[in-house]
Amino acid sequence: MAEKKFEASLTRLEEIVTELEGGELPLEQSLKLFEEGIKLARVCNARLEEAERKVEILLKDKAGKMTTKPFEEEEA
Description:
Number of strands: 2
Low-confidence stretches: none
Helix content: 55-70%
Radius of gyration: 19 Å
Number of helices: 2
Largest sheet: 2 strands, antiparallel
Distance between the termini: 33 Å
Order of helices and strands: HHEE
Strand content: 5-15%
Mean pLDDT: 85
Strand order of the largest sheet: 1-2
């Protein structure tokens, strides 16, 4: 269910960006779409952060036993 909401939010966000980039909308409508886009971006970002926290890497210890380790983002 959360994946569907993420996908739907992302799709709608892409539609909003396309509409705003077109430059054909009146200012008031552009502002409303921009506000909606910000809300959708926050929803998508929160979902991605949640997914990142859940990602775990499987590792083998010296005895060959599988263990898990929290995902750590690489430093750039």
